[in-house]
Records
---
Amino acid sequence: MPVALELLAPAKNKDIGIAAIDCGADAVYIAGPAFGAREAAGNPVSDIRELVSYAHLFGAKVYVTLNTILFETELAQAQNLVNELFDAEVDALIVQDLSLLEMNLPPIELHASTQCAIRTPEQAKMLEQAGFKRLVLERHLSLDEIKKIREATNCELEFFVHGAVCVCYSGRCYLSSYLAGRSANRGACIQACRSKYDLVDSSGKIIARNEALLSVKDLRLDSHLGNLADEGIVSFKIEGRLKNKTYVQNIVRHYRNVMDGVIAASDGKYCKASAGTLHGGFSPNPDITFNRGYTTLYISGRKDKWNSGAASAYLGEKIATVKECIGANRIRISGGAQVANGDGLAFVINKEVIGMRADVCNGDIITIKDNSALKPGTAVYRNFNSAFEKELENNVPRRLVDVRVQFSSKGIKAICDDLGKEAYLPIKQEFPKAEKSGAAIVGIMKSIGKSALCYNFRVESIDEEDVRFYPASVLNGFRRELAEMLSAIPYQRRLREAVKGIKSVCDWTQPDDTRLLNCSNSLSENFYKELGVTNLRPAYEIEQGGGMELMRTRYCIRKELGLCGKKINEPWALLNNGRRLTLKFDCRNCEMVVTL
């Protein structure tokens, strides 16, 4: 049997989820009304129910994020929400807080969130034994590390392939909590990693001034999908539950094209995880949608330059340079790019990104609000392409599921192989025998062989022994009725198997193990104690500890500055608005640590 590869898309809301499915997503993930790890992206269960109904037409799935840590007073609310989501027929929950494993849950499928920071075979084995069907792996992994996790477990593996990246191991960053009392593990991250800092050594010497030293480029692994599949990844995840509709459309359509190519070249090894083929629509281009520059992170086992530089705020694609400043508010550009009224432009001035709108464009002369900070030679970036945005909005592909039709005068059978559905429509009314059977057959094939709802009908056979004449209006009615019958067939969702219990004690070997568990309530505490964990401490959000690690990461400022392996005056520190963060370099493990 071929392995089904899933393209998993983000959805801020129901409409974006539907747009992602229309552009080829095999599944979408979305937050419910609470505990979704994005304060600005909650959705009522009623909307999720509508999204589920639409997704299931294509055999696509809907996963709901319930991936914040839970406080004691929230456990009952969380359990009630799970029951509501199960009734809404969502396909799985993505969770961080392991207290849910101690609750009396309905048989809903559970996925361990990337917030669990799964980066070792030991963690993966423990979570599999706990009852998770799928593990969402840490983003800072290499293909070789993924392979080792695959060899240690039998559950499904999911991996991010595109979008924004946490600079540290996911779920293990307490920087936002420390600086602002807003917990990333509670969906309230202030994105302190995108802020600017001064970098000083132990003598107080300034090494870098006012730079986004912790800001990482966006992930892009479209050229590695085949390698990831070969190492055991079955779900390829796009980040972006706060992104807008056109971003999701563009990126999903691009990865759908790439994944279809991987599947086509696999000689039957892989197949799609849902049904339907895209027809028409825009041509995607991930280079002109929001990004901070792209990186492949650690996928090859090597580090390139990860820092986003000035692009910590979206810079856009470089399209030209300033050739001449004219008056107070016009520029002449060189490079041949076609700029349209309403395009968003950006310039880097003294390491700051300045954004302006192209108000009036006349060939290579562009009217903007103010050109006083610009000079000849300044690079011109476009961070909003109005023509492309309109194309995304107005030229959406149509997703259709193929259906085979077997036609006879007694009834019509419709077979949808990709969804495992069949419908039979008896023809009860008597129609006259066709005087010209050939013309009648052509009429049947023409009228039935069209689309209706989300189905693309193709007449596979006609009983030529008894050909009748059917008015085109009748045949069109047959096709629409078959489409409604197929849509009414219930979707068979997968339910969670009974958990057999954990049989081994987890081997926590990570250097930050005292805070690794994010234990925030009595149920999660019971879970870990049953494992034999003895170094259990409450989550940072409950008990802040002096001198503890605020962040551990494979990203390294020394590496970015070209000082890896060279003698430096340690410790270094990051300074911002009077706050001081100490840096430690764990060169043995090739990691950087941010502490108080």
Note: The first strand starts at residue 3 and ends at 11.
---
Amino acid sequence: MATKKTTYGNESISALKGADRVRKRPAVIFGSDGLDGCCHSVFEILSNSIDEAREGFGDWVEVTRYLDKSIRVTDRGRGVPVDFNPREDKYNWELVFCELYAGGKYQNNSGENYEFSLGLNGLGSCATQYSSEFMDVTVYRDGYKYDLHFEKGENVGGLKKTKFDYEHTGTVIRWRPDLDVFTDIDVPLEYFQEILKKQAVVNSGIKFILKNELEDGTFEEYSYLYENGIEDYVNELSGEKGLTSIHSIQAERKGKDREDKPEYKVKMHFAFCFNNENPRIEYYHNSSYLEHGGSPDKAARNAFVYVIDKYLKANNKYTKNESKILFNDIQDSLILVGSSFSTMTSYENQTKKAINNKFIQEAMTEVLRSQLEIYFIENKMDAEKISEQILLNKRSRETAEKTRINLKKKLGGNLDVTNRVQKFVDCRSKDLDKREIYIVEGDSALGACKLGRDAEFQAIIPVRGKILNCLKADFDKIFKNDIIIDLIKVLGCGIEVKSKNKELNSFDLGNLRWDKVVICTDADVDGFQIRTLILTMLYTLMPTLIDKGYVYIAESPLYEINSKKKTHFAYTEKEKADILKKLDGEKYTIQRSKGLGENQPEMMWQTTMNPETRRLIKVLPEDINRTQEVFDLLLGDNLAGRKEFIAEHGHEYVDLLDIS
């Protein structure tokens, strides 16, 4: 029998009221009920203090992060109006902290307060108050100190007003986001550091101070100040390695998004330079960081491609039938920071991560196009350097794309990898937590390891000869190398390329077919070199395997020492000396260990493959910068540096060579 459904009638409709409008649905206002939403609730309070400072009231904003996860924002602005408002017949504190869509920024397009404002929707202070466990507000203005206290969206105790002799007008707000509203309220220090730095960048001359409470009750302090705003920031990003110097473009325009819409004003400021080391593109609007860009990003893409393509054509830089540049080719060598302000703004949503004003996009496109054309005419040396670099980026991208397609063909197909890789010997287990792949030196080692392994979980692939040095070869050459292609196929996780050629990246750790990748080579100079070249390949093409601890080196014994009672294996000269000392008086024979291919299977199992007795060295990225320096010096293109290193340090390694 079917269950009778509840009647859906006139009484079924209900409305959320008061604080519940935010507390029950925080994602509607803040974009999320998780940590991202909580962070945005913090920014809503901070943005009010920033608006005050930018209007010229105070040049200082302080944020304090407490251990109890509460936050305090202090400014030296005019102080939030909280006293009685005859026009609204209400106290202003009720309008500001208890009414959504109430505030002092709705008339910004008519020349009143806050012409260019972060907060235009009248939601911020109220929404954050509603979503707080508690909020304490202290305001200094009009010769008084005003105090308010809220708990879970409700005012407690009304407004306390005290005559007060203060040094500065201003507002102090301390609150703790409510775990009943957000799933996580532990706003990380890094969020505050990033957001305050970004605000300092686009609000020139305003100092932002961050205080972070430590376990012992003291506070560490950070401060951010950019006197010249985005130009100082671009200079910081570029450092000494810029292709060009920094150029600035500023303009003001008035216009409409549609004929029937009101006219409004937009101010724009762009600072850029070309730099191969640290390309970066950031946009801000009314000092809010536009993570997804919107109108400014569309304008910049259009203008830079239009002007540089026009220059390349006019100066016959393209080869015959060559395709046009893309913005990605420019972006790979561009540091661009844009900061704009408008009296009317259309954000994609309350989180303000993109704007979509049609007029702003058109105005920015027109300004950037015309100013970039002038820049290219007036700076001929820069124009030449830029155009050559962009063409280099483009051709490199196209080569990488061809290489990626060819690589995909080589790695593709649905056949079992056993049939696609010559001489690869798989194991039986499909359990990724047990499977091990031994990369061994040569076919002879393959035979010994194959007979000496545990076929349940140990697989083997031989490396035939010395593989390509991946630090010195270009990607096209690397991916024509059969040994490297076979290793990539067997590992299964694809490649991650540290280069501008993002098209080559196919890495997915989840596709790795092994719990351990074990490099197993002879304990001689040739073996060490092959081991190093394999490590170089992994470091260049899939460094995450090293970073996450999947790569190991199997130690091979240097000496086999036989006495009547036992066979001993020594992996170092010291171990050999210790064993001989213990055999004092006994007869023994000693021989330098043979290559892996000459070992008996039993010996291979005992010394190199048995998890109970083998010695594996885990390759750790403890100092990735130092590792990179050493790899680049000894295996890269720095021939002069390598000669100098060998001349200075070569004698230290002579004892590692077998010169007997």
Note: The chain has a mean pLDDT of 85.
